[in-house]
Design a protein that fits this description.
The complex is a heterodimer of chains A (637) and B (343). By secondary structure, chain A is an alpha/beta fold. Chain A folds into four domains: 228 residues, 3-Layer(aba) Sandwich (Rossmann fold); 86 residues, Translation factors (Elongation Factor Tu (Ef-tu), domain 3), CATH 2.40.30.10; 110 residues, Translation factors (Elongation Factor Tu (Ef-tu), domain 3); 180 residues, 3-Layer(aba) Sandwich (Rossmann fold). Chain A is built from 20 helices and 28 strands. In chain A, strands 7-15-11-12-14-9-8 form a seven-stranded antiparallel sheet, with no helix packed on it. In chain A, strands 2-3-1-4-5-6 form a six-stranded mixed sheet, sandwiched between helices. In chain A, a hairpin with a 6-residue loop joins strand 22 and strand 23. Chain A is globular. Chain B has 343 residues and is an alpha/beta fold. The relative contact order of chain B is 0.16. In chain B, the strands form two sheets. A six-stranded mixed sheet of chain B has the order 3-2-1-4-6-5, sandwiched between helices. In chain B, strands 8-7-9-10 form a four-stranded antiparallel sheet, with no helix packed on it. Helix content of chain B is 34%, strand content 13%. Chain B folds into two domains: 184 residues, Rossmann fold, CATH 3.40.50.620; 80 residues, no CATH class. The chains are: A alpha/beta (637), B alpha/beta (343). At the A-B interface, helix 1, helix 2, helix 4, helix 6 and strand 2 of A face helix 4, helix 5, helix 9, helix 10 and helix 11 of B.
């Protein structure tokens, strides 16, 4: 181990005049950065070195680090700085970092938050996560290896996520004899690539994390390097947040503060620009204008609020404004749209299902959203555009996104807070994707709902019935159509107006362009849902008989309709029984391998968790089943 | 609120009166009127310090949870981190009181001074204080002298789960920081727990930008850590600048102590079991972290005010958690505990 004295803190000042020291330290700014590189580039060692040199490692930690180094370290008897940073037990055993970890250190000028992100191919999602909050990226290169595919990948991702400051850290210079020619060659190589993908400028620094060369201190080993040390650069680079103040004012409303009738405040973090009492503002999406009356904090009212501050605004007029709305400069408001082109990074094991409804969260707005089949995917190694039907874990693609209501937004390039979104799986609640809005589609601003004169209530009242959608779901051959037909006959006899949409009939007409892939199955159900919705608008009792194997699509249809109108009927027949019946001979074909994606055989069926009605066809006759459904309708109307 | 009054004179020490500038706009706040003022005034008015940014982020997190969760609660342990978290909550919802209760998972073995501050702090914030003591641990007489790690497990880990289940809280704020420990460094700000309160470090939701996914199924819950990005130094500086009241045990004073297994322990009440012939010795001590008094090691110190405490912290050579017996058991012990439901 080289003797590295703490250089970032002036211990003498702390000891002699702590108040003077604190005065300096409380006016520090903050920089968040990420380090990108693989296990072999010495990334963890570099971070460990930064912590060690800034004395963020205490003696007791150092003692356990020394013990750990001897037990499982990769540096022989020397201290393995990487062990400081590798946190989780499973990772320690594998000797790799598998997730995003956040580390902290401070110098005289700044506090730093480091996102440590892994370099393995399968972990694009972690790097994007770490990069989303970073002002700067440190791209690590092993001086012996030069610019690798992964260097390109990391640089591309950093650029994609909008990081404007890039440091090319050419590490392990000690292993190439501090050779200037080697360094220059790597920089030239990287420059050619960087300009190709749009990285206009970067700062290259030759260093050694292991030895501490050009980290905090200039090194005698590389007198030829006339640029800054890594720390010098990190301390002086302009922080993004300072530039954010120059943009137009935006406040996504997080929470309405209404402790009593005399106070109504709109709380949120300023996502760009500055605001002063008296400023003219516009509330979106409503478009109402008013002025800022007060900027309220517990420390007293402010004269000015700036980007990055969490504030509470009081407005001069009683305008409608709630969570999800955006308060913005009156003369330069953001746009409102419900159709976008976005760049999407897929982050879940379950692939994107085009057409499936996900939750989309953008700032404090949440809506339901569907993603269209991708226009193309991007190969993160070559940046080539590939054709793609879907997106899988760690895929990046460009696609159109449709939301169920207008969202207040700005392109991601202009404002990360109003242009970056996540997609959430409605069934598992997992965060499945990160998205960046490129622009709104023009048509989304031009489509307006046609106001209808005769309401759905009027249609239903004329038929003297309540519209319902009886949604039969179950395996092929379970008896859905049989029972649905019997129900419709009984309803007809009772004078009810009904219509039966059957899987096979629809597939011969409306949906004859669809096959049986997961994507097509979802589109099939979406169309059936839309048709059924129109029919219930017309006042009909609609019956549908579709396998509809996925829970998410049945939920999607449920949400298209008013509460209580969707009645899920689970025709529960065990696979063995349905297969034994095999009315259409389909199971035989599927078992023989002549029918792909057959539900129950090589495609899953997700049974309803809580159906309104469950029919066990092994004990209930079709007629009894139909009777019980008609009874259910009578008692739920 | 008037933090100046809550700031008890015995804590002020040499700093007395210097940091009263609280109701001031952003341009001058937190730039103490000492040496090295920022050179350009116009720039300073647009520049947020690292503490401003941390504060804004924490407030954002607190508000997001209140907007999205059905029944949030704040875990309040009476330590300095809890004090900062409570202060941030008051700021986040001002002029309303924070719209959730405080929950203290009590072991009955905390320092007396902690109980005193706890009740007063809740009252001053205008918040309901819920105190939960595991009835099973109470019945069994679980204590730190006889039961070792079972003490922490039953009173704290089990007690916490019981309390969350009892009141049906679906989001709980905790004061943990990522700089405390390696397993914490990788935990999300919104940390998802299964219905049985388990944490799965391999199945965390990615957290991007300032977007937090607070959705969960029935029975599941989220632990939320608004102080994730604060360091120990940040906490101390913020306490100083904001005049936040903390338990006097953080400041050095002569106190009755004994030495056990290399730890200096304070004899806080007569339940402390002295060995035959053992006499408590008066030492000038303070605590860097507060827990159950028979398990919390003190440091010998003369630092009787905030400046001196910060000075000692900066010059010290051991980490904060060393005073706690819980972490020494085995490598990655915290990670194990967290998976089992420890906060």
């Amino acid at each position: 181990m080289t003797s590295a004295e703490p250089r970032y803190r002036v211990d003498a000042l702390i000891a002699e005049d702590i108040d003077a020291y604190l005065a300096i330290h409380q006016s520090k700014s903050m920089l968040r950065f990420i380090t990108c590189g693989s296990v072999d580039d010495g990334k963890s060692t570099l971070i460990g070195r930064l912590l060690y040199d800034s004395k963020m490692i205490f003696e007791d930690q150092l003692a356990s680090l020394e013990a750990d180094s001897k037990r499982s370290g990769s540096q022989g008897q020397e201290i393995d700085f990487a062990l400081l940073v590798d946190g989780l037990a499973a990772e320690r055993e594998q000797g790799i970092t598998i997730d995003v970890a956040y580390r902290f250190f401070a110098t005289e000028k700044r506090k730093f938050i480091v996102a440590d992100t892994p370099g393995h191919e399968q972990y694009t999602r972690n790097m994007v996560t770490g990069a989303s909050t970073a002002d700067l990226a440190v791209i690590l290169i092993d001086a012996r290896k030069g610019v690798l595919t992964q260097t390109r990948r990391h640089s591309f991702l950093a650029h994609l996520i909008g990081i404007r400051h890039v440091v090319l850290a050419v590490n392990k210079m000690d292993l190439v004899d501090y050779d200037r020619a080697r360094f220059d060659a790597i920089v030239a190589d990287y420059r050619a690539f960087a300009s190709e993908i749009g990285i206009a400028a970067f700062t290259a620094i030759p260093l050694s994390g292991l030895r501490g060369d050009n980290i905090a201190q200039r090194t005698a080993a590389m007198p030829w390097h006339d640029g800054p040390t890594l720390i010098e650069h990190l301390e002086t680079v302009e922080v993004e947040a300072e530039a954010d103040c120059a943009r137009p004012f935006r406040l996504p409303v997080q929470w309405v503060n209404r402790p009593n009738l005399d106070f109504r405040g709109f709380a949120g973090m300023i996502a760009g620009g500055t605001v002063k009492p008296g400023d003219a503002v516009r509330v979106l999406p409503s478009g109402r204008t008013t002025q800022v009356a007060r900027i309220v904090t517990m420390d007293g009212d402010l004269d000015e609020g700036v980007s990055g501050q969490s504030v509470t605004l009081c407005l001069a007029d009683e305008v409608d404004c709630s969570r999800g709305d955006v308060i913005a400069t009156a003369d330069a408001p953001p746009q409102v749209a419900d159709q976008f082109q976005a760049t999407i990074v897929w982050m879940a094991e379950d692939a994107l299902q085009p057409g499936r409804a996900y939750w989309l969260k953008l700032g404090s707005q949440t809506s339901s959203a569907t993603v269209q089949p991708p226009k193309y995917a991007i190969d993160v190694n070559t940046m080539a555009q590939l054709s793609a039907k879907m997106l899988e874990l760690n895929d990046i693609g460009v696609a159109e996104v449709y939301t169920d209501r207008g969202l207040v937004f700005e392109p991601y390039a202009d404002n990360h807070d109003l242009g970056g979104f996540i997609l959430i799986d409605k069934a598992t609640n997992a965060t499945v994707a990160a998205g960046m809005i490129d622009f709104a589609l023009r048509r989304s601003q031009n489509v307006h709902w046609q106001a209808i004169e005769i309401s759905r209530e009027a249609h239903a009242a004329q038929k003297n019935q309540q519209p319902k959608l009886l949604w039969f779901t179950g395996l092929s051959g379970s008896g859905k159509s049989t029972i649905a037909n019997l129900v419709e006959k009984k309803l007809h006899a009772l004078g009810k107006h009904s219509f039966l949409l059957d899987g096979d009939n629809i597939r011969h007409g409306l949906n004859k362009d669809l096959g049986f892939t997961d994507t097509d199955r979802i589109e099939n159900i979406r169309r059936v849902g839309e048709v059924a919705k129109l029919m219930t608008d017309a006042g009909l009792i609609v019956l549908t008989a579709f396998i509809s194997p996925f829970r998410a699509e049945r939920e999607m249809v449920r949400k298209m309709l008013p509460d209580g109108e969707f009645v899920e009927i689970f025709v529960d027949t065990p696979l063995a029984v349905a297969e034994a019946r095999d009315v259409k001979g389909l199971y035989k074909k599927a078992r023989a391998g002549n029918l792909k994606n057959f539900t129950g055989i090589d495609s899953p069926y997700e049974p309803p968790a809580a159906p309104a009605i469950r029919i066990d066809t092994t004990v209930t006759s079709p007629d009894d089943a139909a009777e019980s459904i008609v009874d259910y309708l009578a008692s739920h109307s | 609120m008037d933090g100046g009054n809550a700031f008890r004179p015995e804590h002020v020490g040499v700093l007395g009166g210097r940091f009263h500038g609280r109701a001031v706009p952003v341009s001058s706040r937190k730039v103490a009127p000492l040496s090295n003022p920022p050179s350009t005034k116009t720039l300073a008015s647009k520049r947020l310090t690292h503490l401003d940014r941390l504060e804004a982020e924490s407030i954002h997190i607190l508000r997001e949870v209140v907007a999205e969760a059905e029944r949030p609660v704040m875990l309040y342990s009476v330590g300095k981190d809890s004090a900062v978290m409570l202060h941030l909550a008051r700021k986040a919802f001002y002029p309303a009181p924070p719209p959730f209760p405080l929950l203290h998972v009590d072991t009955t073995w905390k320092f007396q001074a902690m109980y005193e501050l706890r009740d007063r702090a809740a009252r001053e914030a205008g918040m309901e204080l819920l105190v939960h003591q595991n009835p099973e641990a109470k019945a069994l007489g679980i204590n730190p002298f006889d039961h070792g790690s079972r003490h922490t497990d039953m009173w704290k880990t089990e007690g916490l789960k019981q309390a969350l289940d009892k009141y049906g809280f679906d989001a709980a704020f905790g004061g943990a920081r990522r700089d405390e420990e390696k397993a914490r460094a990788k935990e999300r700000i919104f940390s998802f727990r299964t219905a049985s309160h388990r944490w799965d470090p391999k199945n965390q939701r990615p957290e991007l930008w300032r977007l937090y996914n607070a959705r969960k199924a029935k029975g599941e819950s989220i632990r939320v850590f608004p102080l994730s990005n604060w360091t120990e130094l940040d906490i101390w500086q913020y306490i100083q600048l904001e005049g936040i009241e903390i338990v006097p045990l953080y400041f050095a004073a002569p106190r009755p102590t004994v030495e056990r297994d290399g730890l200096i322990l304070m004899v806080d009440d007569d339940r402390f079991r002295l060995d035959p012939g053992e006499e408590p010795v008066m030492r000038s001590i303070r605590f860097r972290t507060l827990g159950c008094y028979p398990l919390t090691g003190a440091v010998e110190s003369e630092a009787a005010d905030l400046s001196a405490v910060i000075q000692e912290m900066l010059l010290t050579t051991t980490s904060e958690r060393q005073g706690r017996a819980i972490d020494h058991d085995q490598a990655a012990s915290m990670e194990k505990k967290k998976q089992e439901g420890y906060f």
